[in-house]
UniProtKB/TrEMBL annotation:
CDD domains: CMPK. One of its GO terms (molecular function) is dCMP kinase activity. The lineage of its organism: Bacteria, Pseudomonadati, Pseudomonadota, Gammaproteobacteria, Lysobacterales. Belongs to the cytidylate kinase family. Type 1 subfamily. Keywords: ATP-binding, Cytoplasm, Kinase, Nucleotide-binding, Transferase. It is found in: Cytoplasm. It comes from Fulvimonas soli. Residues 11-224 form the Cytidylate kinase domain. This is Cytidylate kinase. GO terms for cellular component: cytosol. The keyword Transferase applies. It comes from the Bacteria. The keyword ATP-binding applies.
Length: 226
């Protein structure tokens, strides 16, 4: 799937709440590499399909939406925050909700939707390098990446992290519901026929349960700079 390229890629795949987004951003900053948040693309398609009033299980309609949607990552002037524009609308806050995560997971199981996002993802591979965060970065999109990590943590810890994160954003959630939602999403992402959530054979497995973020970042950076 990926075209031959000499530009290095570090892939960071794993389940929801394992810390992929946080670790990818910090590692990309340290390396001075670009960042691909592939989950945001699936979230944006789910969101755009919802805005169009589409039935998320209507594969043809959602695929047309994925082929035509305009997604733009717009970094703030100081680079500390990135806004995500979907068809010109700043949808950053809506995209972070668990509802958007569940919609993303649902449309992500449609093979033609995944296919519609391939070229866009490959286009992020530019010098000096790319850190790619998702579910199938090391297995499907960048199988030739020289550096691959699969980041996990226990479901209980991932739910607690997400609970804290959403609470801080003022979103009303309960820990029990969140853990059930996370487990349901893991199950769907891991059991789908195309590009399921699973470690690449050549990925380093990192279990971040009980591990401070700085230690995870150091471990992942060491994959690129031993
Ligand atoms: N090792 C860690 N220890 C404690 N909290 C963490 C750790 N890694 C990430 N977090 C926190 O967990 C939440 C979810 O992390 P995030 O990077 O969004 O995960 P993912 O992208 O895998 O869903 C964030 O609030 C983040 O700060
Ligand atoms: N490369 C990817 C990235 C995300 N997805 C799907 C499956 C995920 O449940 C949703 C949302 O992904 P995202 O990485 O934003 O979610 P988390 O931050 O891990 O909760 O999108 C995918 O199928 N393939």
């Amino acid at each position: 799937m990926s075209r031959a390229s000499s530009v290095p890629v570090l892939t960071i795949d794993g389940p929801s709440g394992s810390g992929k987004g946080t670790v990818s951003r910090l590692v990309a900053e340290q390396l001075g590499w670009r960042l691909l948040d592939s989950g945001a693309l699936y979230r944006a398609v789910g969101y755009a399909a919802g805005m169009e009033g589409l039935d998320l299980s209507d594969g043809d309609a959602v695929t047309r939406c994925a082929q035509s949607v305009k997604i733009r990552f717009q970094p703030s002037a100081d680079g500390a925050d990135t806004r995500i524009l979907v068809n010109g609308h700043d949808a950053t806050d809506e995209l972070r909700t668990e509802t958007a995560g569940a919609a993303a997971s649902a449309i992500a199981s449609i093979p033609s939707v995944r296919q519609a996002l391939v070229d866009l993802q490959l286009s992020f591979r530019k010098p000096p390098g790319l850190v790619a965060d998702g579910r199938d970065m090391g297995t499907v999109i960048f199988p030739d990446a020289p550096y691959k990590v699969f980041l996990t943590a226990s479901a209980a810890e991932r739910a607690k992290r997400r609970y804290k994160q959403l609470k801080e954003k003022g979103l009303g959630v309960t820990l029990g519901t969140l853990q059930r939602e996370i487990e349901a999403r893991d199950e769907r992402d891991a059991s789908r026929a195309v590009a399921p959530l699973k470690p690449a054979e050549d990925a380093l497995l990192v279990d971040s349960t009980g591990m401070p973020i700085a230690d995870v970042v150091a471990k992942v950076l060491a994959v690129v700079r031993p």
